[in-house]
Amino acid sequence: MVRLLTHNLLACHVKGCTSNNFPLQFQNAQIELREADFNTDFLKNFLPKLEWKALVDSAKDLGDTSLPLEQPEMLDDEFLKNLHHVLLEIHVEEGSMTCPNCKHSYPISNGIPNMLLAEHEIG
Amino acid sequence: MSRPELQAPPEIYYGDTEAKKYTKNTRNQQIQADMTYRALELLNLPPDEPAFLLDIGCGSGLSGEILDEEGYLWAGVDIAPSMLEVALEREVEGDLFLQDIGQGFGFRPGSFDGAISISVLQWLLNAETSHPTSSPPHRLNRFFTTLHSALRNPSRAVFQFYPSSDDQIQLITSIAQKAGFGGGVVVDYPNSNKARKVFLCLYVGGGGGQQQQIPQGLDGDVVEDGKVRFEKRRARDLRKDKNGKRKSQKVIDRDWILRKKELYRKRGKESVPRDSKFTGRKRKPVF
């Protein structure tokens, strides 16, 4: 149940891995689409928190190219619909996420990413 | 029985059976729900704004379900895979992560509008190995600093937990303060042994002139759910004689005796009397 919503907030937390540790790259991702309730207010509130480039890139990795490369100034309905779909309806079920910096891989099984670290990786 | 956190680490204590048992228990569900509502109240989120929350130690999603109902979007972390499995079965809406909160979070700064955590912090107070990173102060420190950065400014985090001593509260609050949090401890029903609940109410930001007030703990009488209090205790006391010992159970009938004897034989107890036609027969009155 990793959605791009939370993936966009997630950076690597291995000890000493502080720069270039975001976004985590999906590998062998199997996705599932599940409908979710559309909530305009939430999307508008959430927009400032997003790293736009990371979101577009990760969406592309998962095979969705409905988002524009630049974050548009005007929020029209179609854009919000697409954003809603990308953020909340694409679930990554299997695969893994890899940190671009330290190459730590967080396996995803059954929709739950395993964020546990080994003893020497704890900061 | 001693508290669960003293028996085993959480990911082991909440194995498959315990996770199912915990989630199915209606009393647990009720208590969890009450505490979640109270935590949300303490969180004091602005109304009509769909917030994105973090549920720390979400377990099987008992509190997550309430967040769903209240219209919040949330992400949950827990260290027990079995609990998360139950959460998947119950089809909660939030995103789940298998994570040890003592190792810290990797969330980007300002990710969440608030955090709640029900009955979790006490699990951080036990060291599992002798490695320096598993000492409680180190784990608490790592937890609070990474949580502080993951929360928006201003926002709140509310933790319900079961401290076993005042020293533990002291330790937790001092580390939280060092991590940059303001706030303090709220105790609901301080005079009731049963209903007493400790909440740690932490603030990010909100300083500078208008200091955020720590909310008042609930006080007064506890509303019981229509049951007479101490009923159980009275029933138990009735079974005791005047010396406070349990009354020995009366011999019931012949079948009962035979069953008992059979059981003793099966357990390998020696000197179990033979069964005969006299077994369990009433004696004649002495006169």
Mind explaining what this structure looks like?
- The complex is a heterodimer of chains A (123) and B (287).
- Chain A has helices at 4-7, 40-46, 52-61, 77-89; strands spanning 2-3, 25-33, 90-98, 105-109, 112-113.
- By secondary structure, chain A is of the alpha+beta class.
- Chain A has one domain (2-114): N-terminal domain of TfIIb (Single Sheet).
- Chain A is globular, with a radius of gyration of 15 Å.
- Chain A starts with a strand and ends in a 10-residue tail after the last strand.
- Chain B has 287 residues and is of the alpha/beta class.
- Chain B is built from nine helices and seven strands; from the N terminus they run αααβαβαββαβαββαα.
- Chain B has helices spanning 10-13, 16-24, 26-43, 62-69, 81-89, 136-150, 166-178, 231-238, 254-266, and strands spanning 52-56, 73-78, 95-98, 112-118, 151-161, 182-188, 197-204.
- Chain B has a seven-stranded mixed sheet, sandwiched between helices.
- In chain B, a hairpin with an 8-residue loop joins strand 6 (182-188) and strand 7.
- Chain A binds chain B through residues 1-3, 5-6, 9-13, 21-22, 36, 39, 41-42, 45-46, 49, 51, 110-117, 119, 122-123, and chain B through 48-50, 52, 73, 75, 77, 79, 81, 84-85, 88, 93-100, 103-108, 110-111, 129, 131, 133, 142, 146, 150.
Distance, first to last CA of chain B: 51 Å
Oligomerization = heterodimer
CATH architecture of the largest domain in chain B: 3-Layer(aba) Sandwich
Biggest interface goes to:
A-B, 31 and 34 residues
CA-based shape of chain B: elongated
Determine the number of helices of chain B (DSSP H or I, runs of at least 4 residues): 9
